[in-house]
Amino acid sequence: MVPPERQTIPNNDTFKAISSTVEPMLALLSLLANAVILIAMARCRQLRKRSSNVLLIFLAVGDLLHVISSMSIGNAVMRGYPHSYYGCVFVVCTSTLPLQLTISALFIIAVDRFVAVRWPFKHAVYCSRSRIIKYVAVLWVIGAGFIYLPMFGWNLGWINNGKCSYHRLIDKQFRIYAIFFPASLTPLVAMSCIYAYIFYIVIKMSRTVGTGSDAETAANENRRKAFIAAKKCGVIILAYVILILPVDVMNCAHLWLGYVCVACTKMATWGLLIHGIVCPVIYLFQNKLLRTVVVMTLRCRRIDEHALSLAEGSGM
């Protein structure tokens, strides 16, 4: 089937000027925000002990790598580098890899909350820090398997006079059917089902409060705490849906409807950078210990692990 004629919007010099100012500013803010989070995590061993904070590290690393790749790989590709065919394919595929790390971490966050609600007394075993790292690594490798498919021929060919170009090399169908549906939309649907189940369990639990044994009461208390944590993690996933999903929506509109809005697509890509700014703010708002360590880091103060442990134990 021949796609309908594309509807393009003429280039606007004013929008180009705004884009050249806004994009570097967003990239710099995202770079600084995630770097501060990672430095704080590195300085405080107590933060790294929690499996939930390990997942936040993966999210911060994903956003940080995206900024670095957009500033380095993106600028190189815009100038037509590298000039070799396989080098170009490898580089443009690698530019999308950090986003897959973010999606993997978000999915494991949902699974972590599911285990905490479904099996509250076995959560520490099933979702230990080492296992969390292994789960994310496995999902990242699986996602990379999809991302690097163009290396094996699923691309538009070397048709740009030897100059590297993402849009002239990567097939739009590949972006939709090999990346968006299996590696982005499917985990998102699974996360939605998991959180729907969590809400169902908590609603069911609220109807039986005070009617069970001491063990059931303790389990329900653990589920209540897990539900509170799930709501906080749900905000991070909501940020992903609002800020990152529009890029894939614009790709679908281009492929299926033949509609192209250059300005809309460009602003949708800004959402990837804004995501790297919003998420660190969410981490700080929800995690008081992390907020304390970040403040101490910005003030160049020494981290006293014992004092932090005592403060947290007293309800810091």
Automatic annotation (TrEMBL):
Location in the cell reads: Cell membrane
What is one term from the GO cellular component aspect held by the record?
Answer: plasma membrane
- Record's bilayer topology term: Multi-pass membrane protein
GO molecular function, one example? G protein-coupled receptor activity
Q: Which UniProt keywords apply?
A: Cell membrane, G-protein coupled receptor, Glycoprotein, Membrane, Receptor, Transducer, Transmembrane, Transmembrane helix
Tell me the domain of life.
Eukaryota
Q: Where do the G-protein coupled receptors family 1 profile domain residues begin and end?
A: 33-283
The residues that cross the membrane are 25-42, 54-78, 84-111, 132-154, 174-203, 233-256, 268-285
- The answer to whether keyword Manganese applies is no
Q: What is its main location?
A: membrane
Extract the InterPro entries matched here.
GPCR_Rhodpsn, GPCR_Rhodpsn_7TM
Q: Which SUPFAM superfamilies match?
A: Family A G protein-coupled receptor-like
The protein's name in its UniProt record: G-protein coupled receptors family 1 profile domain-containing protein
Q: Which organism is it from?
A: Ridgeia piscesae
Taxonomic lineage of this organism?
Answer: Eukaryota, Metazoa, Spiralia, Lophotrochozoa, Annelida
